[in-house]
């Protein structure tokens, strides 16, 4: 499977005409953002002009229209994300666009289809493995912050009906992660109390999935304004962890002392002790992020005594993504987008993500 988006020879993009004959698109070059090695560890974001790639056998060429950011993208820029050493890469894993050409023997999609690439291009179905999770977009291989990308047709899904490109671009990482944490691995049930930490992409998708499933979400945040927005989306309660440092007590009070059955743990070592103290016996905690840092001791006895299940969640497969999109379409769930930036203003989108002063997702559009 090839995952090299940029070829070195300029070309004409051949489109399949709606009446059966091929047409030719004259654009041979494109603009793309690249992270270029800067200093000993990090990267600098720079605009480049490169050839438009040609889809090889089994590939589709996508005209990208939108992308979204995740916390991971800031880690990549800083050189804090574990991946093979690279002098330059196209960033971001999450995007959406239109198929504008298909390679030989590519049959899953046709010209004009609206699609999103998946986070792990090799993870189609089944369990994760070293092979199918070693390559991820915007890390080990180039990502989606480019006007055109060629990718294996197996590594693409159709976007949900009625979704804009901007909305679809929010799904591949954050939404799939929330889905797997709560549904695939957590087996969330209607009536479960669900704890969501913060109001970033994973947590807000978790909130929406919980509400649509008949569960009872509780949200933590340092902002009362954001907690009010979360309640407007269906949260049964909110806890300000700045004004309530021992926030697990307030969470348990909202559950009448029962504790929560599900947690999307995105905070890391600073929030984990509080999260575990919020769980009911037999509860499930999905370990996802490290906003407050990674590491810390595993409290074996509380986990054993409480019959607690802990899952490490690292996005998911194409099959997980497709199950998610079916759920979103069925329940008419639309992503929450805090702000949309133009393609030329990608650096400003990174700045906002780094400051964490947003609610939901940050999107880049107008490629």
Would you kindly provide a written description of the structure presented here, covering whatever features stand out?
The protein folds into two domains: 13-20 and 27-39 and 50-174 and 316-365, Quinone Oxidoreductase, Chain A, domain 1, CATH 3.90.180; 186-312, NAD(P)-binding Rossmann-like Domain (Rossmann fold, 3-Layer(aba) Sandwich), CATH 3.40.50. The strands form four sheets. Strands 5, 7, 8, 9, 10, 17 and 18 form a seven-stranded mixed beta sheet that branches. By secondary structure, it is an alpha/beta fold. It has ten helices and 18 strands. Strand 1 and strand 2 form a beta hairpin. Helix 3 (171-184) packs across helix 4 (201-212) and helix 6 runs parallel beside helix 7 (272-278). The longest helix is centred in the middle third of the chain and has 14 residues, at 171-184. The chain has helices spanning 71-78, 165-168, 171-184, 201-212, 224-232, 247-254, 272-278, 300-305, 318-331, 346-355, and strands spanning 13-16, 22-25, 29-37, 43-51, 59-68, 88-89, 94-102, 114-117, 148-152, 156-158, 193-197, 216-221, 237-240, 260-265, 279-287, 309-312, 337-342, 361-365.
